[in-house]
Amino acid sequence: MKKSDHPHHVDHRTAVAVETARFVAAVKDADLVTAVPSCPDWTLADLVKHTGSVQRWFSVLLRARIQEPPRKREVDLRLPDQQDGYADWLAESATVAADAFAATDPNLPMWAWGADQYARFWARRMLFETLLHRVDAELALGLRPAIDRPLAVDGIDEFLVNLPSATFFAPDVANLRGPDKTIRFRATDGDESWVVRLRPDSFGLDTAHPTTAATDATVQGTAADLLLLVYGRLPHEAEAFAHEGDEHLLAHWFANSAF
């Protein structure tokens, strides 16, 4: 993907509100002890609490305009005592986030654990935490999740850009090494593609790789399905995907890359 193709004109701040509303609608009348198969050992209550906590925590970081890694993660969650209040609490979390966004210039330099050292990193990260867990909730409830295509495209990019920095909470990422091997992810419902290059000591997006040049392995699917793939919500063997090239390389990638 060329640098000029990014960002994909996604308003991350507004999308956080939209995705949270979708999440709230899904769980409003649901039984929160329902298991979440895509997040093993979690219930819907755990999923809601995690997502709202992330939104409130990131909001604290934004308001503090942090310039170095935070030493503690203490935040007043204001979590209700009863789970029947969780859906409304999640809706309120998005309001807390909106207030933090309104008070913070997205282009303000800030510490971030990923590649983009600006306040906008946290809004973008919050969006995809919210979107993916909204999908998890819908899957748990037997619903068919819909993902807006521009968000899917942006989310694949956000995931692959930040993955090299994720070893502190996803240690298997450190195994993503190889003797100069390349994997292409290609969207079949558009013209986007992303090439990841594995080197002996590192890996990352290869933004200079020509779109027509060969790679060692290729995975193709719709942008929405590719987003679920990179996050480990769909297996690469699923019928939604076509792949060619080095199957061992793909297996190695998917065994170590999801978080």
Question: What keyword list fits this structure?
Answer:
Four Helix Bundle (Hemerythrin (Met), subunit A), 2 domains, five-stranded mixed beta sheet, 259 residues, Nonspecific Lipid-transfer Protein, Chain A, alpha+beta
Beta-sheet strand percentage? 5-15%
The largest sheet has its strands arranged as 3-2-1-4-5
Would you count the extended β strands for me? 5
Helix coverage percent: 40-55%
CATH architecture classification name of the largest domain = Up-down Bundle
Provide the gyration radius in Å. 18 Å
Tally of individual domains: 2
Walk me through this protein's architecture.
The chain is an alpha+beta fold and 259 residues long. It folds into 2 domains: 3-146, Four Helix Bundle (Hemerythrin (Met), subunit A) (Up-down Bundle); 154-256, Nonspecific Lipid-transfer Protein, Chain A (2-Layer Sandwich), CATH 3.30.1050. Helix content is 42%, strand content 10%. It has a 5-stranded mixed beta sheet with strand order 3-2-1-4-5. Strand 1 and strand 2 form a beta hairpin. The longest helix is centred in the middle third of the chain and has 22 residues, at 119-140. Mean pLDDT is 95; it is low at 1-7.
